[in-house]
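Structure tokens please, single chain.
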Amino acid sequence: MPGWAGLRQSMPHHGPPLAAPLDLNRLLEVGLGRDPAAAALQDLTHTISWAELNRRAEQLARAYQRLGLQRGQRLASLIPNRVDLVVHYLAGLRSGLVLTPLNYRYVPREIDHALTVSGAAALVFHGERLADVQASAVAAQLPLGCHRIDDPSGFEPLLAAAPAGDAPTPWPDLAADDPCFIYFTSGSTGRPKGVTHSRASFGAMLASVIQATELQAGEEVLAGSSLAHIASCGLVLAALATGASAAIASRHDASAVETLLRRHRPAVLLMLPAALFALLRDQGLGAADLASVRLCISGGDKVPHQLQVEFRQASGFGIDECFGMTEIGYATLAPPSGLNRIGSVGQLCPGFSASLRREDGSEVDTGEEGRLWIQAPSVMVGYWENPEATAETIVHGWLDTGDDMRIDADGYLWFCGRRKQIIVHDSSNICPQEVEEALAEHPAVDLVGVIGIHDPVHGENVRAYITLRPDHPAPSETELIAFARERVGYKAPEEIRVLPELPLTPVGKTDRMALRQLAADGLQAA
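Here you go.
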């Protein structure tokens, strides 16, 4: 590969040393040892103790075993933010299953893709998604079936359906390189890929989160984003591992988060920029509601300066902006006991090394912009059943983030831009090709090009540029957006522009650089 000779002489940057990775079979040990009757986990309607959480996880793990699920098989879930979802994760980790969380906003075609790629043996889903599961072409064919949970019964129907077995035997020892999670995330091309974490990489990620956030036993965290994504999932499981309790926002609207803030007084708050904007601008937020928070983490895309201003006005301190990826976990965060340089994404988390490179692979100088490559024990083992994509992303042990950064003399990293084509809307990765394919199915659409348009609240919004076929009636923008939403759900464009001709590259591909210039020219004209 060009430029790697220069890399051998580079000087990567390093975060603090990492403590030993966590044992995923012993995540509740500290909490059980401190006070098994104390609250460990809560959402808007349920609170359970450490002892009860441990009992439910063991009970569910045994039920999965009796259903025929075996070590290494993939168990997909389509479950909203609830206590039940964490119980499900703990049960899967305990029994050696490969947990495969599906984004709760997935439409049937996306459900089918994730189930097919992962080779899932079974699916656990919430009853409010029954229609989508029934519309899935793959779900009904899963070898070990689909299992429904509901409120308030939770897993009771599943537990009752699992046939009674012999007296339980001790769980087998699980290998560090056994896969334990597959998260689906969009890459720069193609449909979502299955980011695979082993027990070792996921345990290292949790250990790094604990050190980076300075979590302490007895504290509480509030996860204000989806537990189907690695950010909230990792924070909640890291909190439990250190003996801290966790509150889960079942809904991500301002009133739900305000209720949890007042009820549980969390020390650590995690929210996406758009939801945090809504919280701060909600008239119901009281002056004391953020008083317990010592650390507010946000990311997924650049945290807008206006959001920092409004949060400081409400809390007296700044948001701790992080940088992370499903493939690596939390890579940067300003140390809570140190300086938070507003505008930066913080310093490297424990266990992480960073290399900022030019196109020839050589290391850039301090303060100079370069492409960020990451090395850490928490780096994924690869994309599930996709060695080609894995080899493109991980080269000589370094993961290519696709993002441009610069690092200052004190080790703070500053985000400069995204080289990948991915659109990041409310921290969800949206592949433009996937949206283009959906719109192209409309009989009136000829050519499609999709780009992200910067938005101060959502990070980026999806804009589609299209040309129309002259032999069909011209559809309205509303009709086309609804058409796309039926196929790709939340990834559908917020706006559509009709062009007489779509700009193409010399080889006939959509020229997204030209589309971005067109968008910039339109903004200047406005």
